[in-house]
Amino acid sequence: MFSQNSKKNLINLxxxxxxxxxxxxxFLRPENLAQTNIKDVxxxxxxQAILFCFFFLVSKIVHKKIFNNKIIFIDFLCLNSFIFFLxxxxxxxxxxx
Length: 97
Prior knowledge:
By secondary structure, the protein is an all-alpha fold. It is 75% helix and 0% strand. Helix 1 packs antiparallel against helix 3 and helix 3 crosses helix 4.
């Protein structure tokens, strides 16, 4: 039904969306749920969606201008999403930058 390439792209999309949804899931732990209201949750979801859209556009521009379509965009976006996730949510990696 699906080709091998489309399965790989679908898995990469799940990974990319996971990097942007994971902070929401990690924030909504039982300890934090008692202190948050629906406004905070919607703010968190919309801010992650805006970050994803901005990051997608910047990655698309960088991919087109610098790499001239020499590498696959979905792999480039997956790598950039991973680095973005590490820079904001894994504190030990910040010592390198």
